[in-house]
Amino acid sequence: MTALPLSDYPSAPSKPLAVLQSVFGYDRFRGPQAEIVTHVVAGGDALVLMPTGGGKSLCYQIPALVRDGCGIVVSPLIALIQDQVAALTEAGVAAAGLHSGQEPGEQREILRALADGRLDLLYIAPERIQTPSFLEAADHARLALFAIDEAHCVSQWGHDFRPDYRALTLLHERWPWVPRIALTATADPPTRDDIIRQLKLEAARQFVMSFDRPNITYRVIAKKDPRRQLLGFIKDEHAGDAGIIYCSTRKRVDETAAWLKDQGIPALPYHAGLDAGVREAHQTRFLREEGIVMVATIAFGMGIDKPNVRFVAHLDLPKSIEAYYQETGRAGRDGLPATAWMAYGLQDVAMHRQRLEASTAPDDHKRREKAKLDAMLAYCETAECRRTFLLRQLGEALPEPCGNCDICHEPVETWEATEAARKAMSAIYRTGQRFGAEHLIAVLRGERTDKVAEHGHDRLKTFGVGSDLSKDAWRSVFRQLLALGLITADPEAFGGLCLTDAARPVLVDAEPLHLRRDPAPRAERRAAPTG
Length: 531
Ligand code: ADP
Ligand code: ZN
Prior knowledge:
The protein has helices spanning 14-24, 33-41, 57-66, 78-90, 104-115, 132-140, 169-174, 189-198, 226-237, 250-262, 276-288, 321-328, 346-358, 363-381, 386-393, 406-409, 418-430, 437-445, 450-454, 471-484, 504-507, 522-527; strands at residues 46-49, 70-74, 95-98, 121-124, 143-148, 180-184, 205-208, 216-222, 242-246, 267-270, 293-296, 309-314, 338-344, 414-416, 487-490, 496-499, 514-516. The chain is α/β, with parallel strands linked by helices. Strands 3-4-2-5-6-1-7 form a seven-stranded parallel sheet, sandwiched between helices. Strands 8-13-12-9-11-10 form a six-stranded parallel sheet, sandwiched between helices. A two-stranded antiparallel sheet has the order 14-17. The longest helix is centred in the last third of the chain and has 19 residues, at 363-381. It is elongated, with a radius of gyration of 26 Å. The chain binds adenosine-5'-diphosphate (ADP) and zinc ion. Zinc ion is lined by residues 385-387, 401-402, 404-405, 407-408. Its cofactor is Mg(2+); Zn(2+). It is an enzyme of class 5 (isomerase). It catalyses: Couples ATP hydrolysis with the unwinding of duplex DNA by translocating in the 3'-5' direction. This is DNA helicase RecQ.
């Protein structure tokens, strides 16, 4: 098969707009869509980096309809494929999906439609690409383009690596004349470079849309009693609103959803351990009803297109900035004010550090994970505008502080914490580097708990030297020392804290250390006398 000369393609400039209006019912293109569509219609390769909700789908759907032949769309999730195919079919487009959840007979029929030129768009799961039946049918078909959705899945830097995506170089090798468009909402520079390398898109034109979501307010609070803090946040600021609450474990999802429900919040759980039927019912209710709060693991969210999600809350620390940005990006797609709220505490840091230390993964993988975690911790502990920080991680510069995050609203104070840090570290050292923060705090504050008595820690020099600081203040110190990497959680000692080499300058050379002061919770601030 040979490529058609470009002039044979009906690509008059007005055609894409006509398709946008007649098929999709929209008046005009949004942002860079028109430029991308024109480029792909003309046969160019493209890499599109656009935030969630930016309107990526039309960037390949319209060229597929305008160009001759069928557009092949690689998509990682069956649910996403089904949703898109249903919406397109409804709009009168000849669309189909091909995935492993179908009967062989159905698959054969779809491939016959492809070979016979009866399809405009075929969505396909990555693992189907290499099957002989697909390759043969595609050889017989006229192909309009290849779209590779969620292209970050090809990269181990991304948070959602799928080995099947690596095989997608085959598209380019077998059908080099067919234009390719790769799309993702994960834009940090290492992932971006990796996508280009893995998919051999060096010659593709890049379309990078600003990732800023100015309508989202970012806020991070120190975790104390997370459920109560969450409930307060919802009641104060988002009563009756739809929202998503992310937790790291299924157990925590179930418990949190049940507890919120008892408190009168219409919360539903969602995680991979639930029955497929239950998951689907909960997702449908979330999409159709007003004001449902979905409590979920990260299994929930990809491809969810609900414009009026008013808040995304994290009760546990996400693994990376990219994951965090993608998850929070599900709030406020309609452009109206929304909140990204996160409670973050000592346990989160210790838990992640311990998980990393204990991991048996290859070294370079561990290094990558550690770099991601460090960036995430730095975000939590930053004294800089949160949006500036986030966008910089995604390779984008914000000219000035955003005015719409907790730090901009209320700049953080720092304090000279050298003395406190040294006390904390000597408590770790003198107790043998194997105890958790709560016990160390008891030692520092001179509390004669059973555990203190059992280990004779009331006889230590450090016993009671930290009675000037509250428990919360000490938790904040330990949390920040962990985040800074001066101390770490030892997996051999069940997460007991120990010193790292980085502790030396502070402990021995008395290098000054400034820590941030945790802002008082809102309720306490409100109760505080004014004037
Ligand atoms: P993404 O895949 O980037 O997350 P989608 O393609 O799902 O985004 O689009 C997000 C929403 O924006 C959808 O509801 C879509 O119908 C809508 N949309 C996209 N482009 C336009 C447009 N040009 N005009 C109006 N609405 C649009
Ligand atoms: Zn800001």
